[in-house]
Amino acid sequence: MKFTKIYFLLFSAIILISCSEKNKDTSLADQQEDPSHEKIQVLNFGTFHMGFTTDANKTEFDEEDRKNQQRVHAVAKKLSDFKPTVILVEQEPKYTEKIQQEYHNYVNNPDTVFEEPSEIELLAYELGRLSGTERIYAIDHKMGYNYRIGQQIDNQIDPEWHDKYYEDPFTFYPSIDVNEDSLSLLGRLKLMNRDRYLDFLIAVNADMLTHAGTEGGYEGADEAAKYYQRNLRMYSNLNRIDLDEDDRVFILMGASHTAFFRDFMSRDPKYKMVNTHNYLK
User: In the chain, what are the domain boundaries?
Assistant: First the structure.
C-alpha cells in the first residue's frame, strides 16, 4: 500500500513537471507568434546576375541593351510599391561605401551610364530612387566550393543517382518551365521566385552533393556545407545592420541565396517576409 502511494505521488510529480514544460513551450511559441510583436518586413527577391559574374551558370542577358534596361526599370517600378527604407545587395560589405556613393549619385542623376551594369545598378538603384530609399548596404560573403566534386572523385556513395540527377536536374521538377530563357524578363523573375524553383536551387547547389563521396569519406557533403556556411555568413551580415520595426527591407541577390534566406527567415521571429508575387503583377 505504501509503495503504491509513493508511486502515485511520483507519477503525479512527473505529470506536473511535464505540463509545466509544455506550458513553457506553448508560452514561447505564443510569444513568437504574438501579433503585438512587430516584425521587420522583408521583400526577399531573387534574380539572375545581369552583368559580369563568376558564377558557373550565367543567364544570357544583354545588360547594355536599352530596351532590356527599360524592362528592368519596369520591374523596379512594380517593386517600388513595397517602399523599402533599406536595400541590401549581393556585394561584399567592404564595397558598401562605394555602392552608397554610386547610388546617391544615381539618385541625383538617373541618366548616369554605367559600364557593364549589373542588377545592382539596373534594379536596386532604380528601385531605391523610385522609393526614396536612403540606405543601401552590401551583405555578400565570398567562399569557394566545388559543386562538381561528384564528377571528380571515385564516388562510392550513390553514383547512379548522383549522375542521373545532374545529367538533367529539371527532369525531377516537372512544374518548373525548363524553357525559361524564352520567357519575358518579368516572367523569368516570377518563375525564379516561386517556392518550387527556390527549393530546386538549394537541392542542385548543395543538398544533392550528399550523394557523392569516397568510401568512408564525405567529400560531397563537405562541399555542400561550404555553400550553407556562405549563406549563413551572408545572413549574419544582414543581422549586423541596424534595423527596427519601422524598416522595410528589400534584399536583391542571386536566387540561390534568396532560397537560403527564405528558409532562415521563415524560422526567425525578427523578420516577416512579404509575398514577392504581390509586387510582380
Answer: 1-37, 40-281
